[in-house]
Write a sequence for this structure.
């Protein structure tokens, strides 16, 4: 049995995993940082929550299902690419196309909105109702 | 000098401590069948996300290796390869060939799944398991022998499972400056406001309760490597504690970490399931089907 390569591979993997943590990067996936919920949050800070709305051809305004059963791309994907999307809202065309391809029976989207709710905390307690902003919008090309 | 070689000996012995081959056979069933659940229920975003390729931003592996771009036909092909390969590998037939085919296809699947900006953190141990299982070779359910090759593979899965917790505590420290800064903060409140279930949403009215919970979590995460040396009841208690934590986060936030939970199997004496299953099967065979009406 090859002991050398086994221990060698183990050492390399543990080293990469260690640097993944110290550099705090997901880029070394699957040996990247285990940073789920690692960001500290301020007891007097704000809590932001991003979501998407859509106007449909049927005239309704609906929440875009950011999950595998909806448009495929998840909410966390949108949040981590938020700067890119705000800089270039035409990326949202992909969301509208994915919706139409995955749900051909449903009303297509005609306009998409990237929205953000912000809750204010004080001593960890939520103050009042959230403020809502529209971060960007995109008129869907047909 | 001899003390140094003693230490090296002990370290090598720890990484290669033999594991029964029957345990390998049972774990293989668990891991390979879980992969099917994974690609159809957990990382089932690969096929739908292939409809929005403009969002594909692969991690280092995806940019460095000459891997293909995501597409619907490729994603569906990977699905078929993983299903067939995992079913064959779960039976123990062609453990190396089927195992490596599954490993390559599953890695490509995961590079796609995690290539859209957000990278989830529950698949470390499972990806290690899929990589090391094919190195063990043949292992039958009824085998009485142990092997060092199996020992190394199991140790890798165990260490990856534990690293999922320990490393997450390290990153909390790195990001927050100190463990206390993280534990005294509003992380659980933040998580519950964003995606808390009705069952747990009330806890946001009691920040002190959530701070205690945060201290509890970061403590067991830092202590998690101890589990690698636990035996018997203490080990079982530790396994129940960590799985209980995942059950809580599932009920509170809808986050279950099942891909990590399945890897806790590598800590358990799975070979004991073999005689139990044999007895249950022979019992079924001996007993004739129950007559439904008096005849």
């Amino acid at each position: 049995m090859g002991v050398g390569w086994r221990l060698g591979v183990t050492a390399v993997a543990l080293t990469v995993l260690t640097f993944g943590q110290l550099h705090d990067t997901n880029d070394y996936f699957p040996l990247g940082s285990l940073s789920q919920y690692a960001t500290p949050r301020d007891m007097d800070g704000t809590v932001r929550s991003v979501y998407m709305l859509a106007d449909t051809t049927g005239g309704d305004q609906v929440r875009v299902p950011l999950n595998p059963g909806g448009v495929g791309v998840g909410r966390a994907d949108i949040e981590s690419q938020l700067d890119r999307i705000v800089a270039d809202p035409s990326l949202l065309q992909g969301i509208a196309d994915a919706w139409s391809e995955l749900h051909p029976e449903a009303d297509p989207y005609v306009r998409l909105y990237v929205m953000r709710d912000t809750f204010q905390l004080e001593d960890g307690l939520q103050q009042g109702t959230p403020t809502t902003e529209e971060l960007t919008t995109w008129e869907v090309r047909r | 000098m001899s003390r140094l070689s003693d230490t090296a000996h002990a370290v090598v012995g720890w990484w290669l401590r033999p594991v029964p081959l029957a345990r390998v056979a049972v774990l293989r069933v668990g891991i390979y069948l879980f992969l099917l659940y994974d690609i159809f229920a957990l990382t089932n975003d690969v096929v739908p996300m292939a409809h929005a390729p403009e969002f594909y931003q692969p991690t280092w592996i995806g940019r460095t290796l000459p891997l293909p771009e995501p597409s619907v036909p490729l994603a569906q092909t990977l699905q078929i390869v993983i299903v067939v390969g995992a079913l064959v590998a779960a039976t123990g037939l062609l453990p190396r060939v089927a195992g490596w085919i599954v490993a390559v296809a599953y890695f490509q699947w995961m590079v796609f799944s995690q290539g859209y900006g957000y990278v989830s953190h529950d698949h470390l141990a499972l990806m290690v398991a899929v990589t090391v299982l094919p190195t063990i070779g043949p292992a039958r359910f009824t085998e009485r022998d142990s092997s060092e090759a199996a020992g190394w593979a199991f140790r890798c899965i165990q260490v990856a499972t534990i690293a999922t917790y320990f490393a997450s505590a390290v990153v909390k420290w790195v990001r927050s400056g100190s463990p206390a800064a993280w534990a005294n903060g509003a992380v659980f409140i933040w998580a519950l406001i964003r995606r808390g279930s009705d069952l747990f949403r009330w806890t946001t009215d009691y920040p002190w309760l959530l701070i205690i919970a945060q201290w509890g979590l970061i403590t067991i995460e830092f202590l998690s490597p101890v589990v690698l040396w636990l035996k018997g009841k203490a080990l079982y208690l530790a396994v129940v504690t960590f799985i209980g934590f995942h059950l809580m986060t599932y009920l509170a936030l809808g986050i279950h970490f099942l891909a990590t939970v399945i890897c806790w199997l590598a800590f358990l004496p799975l070979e004991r399931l073999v005689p139990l299953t044999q007895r249950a099967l022979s019992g079924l065979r001996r007993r004739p089907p129950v007559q439904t009406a008096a005849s």
User: Anything to note?
Assistant: The first helix of chain B runs from residue 2 to 15. Strands of chain B lie at 19-20, 146-147. The CA atoms of residues 43 and 110 of chain B lie 8 Å apart.
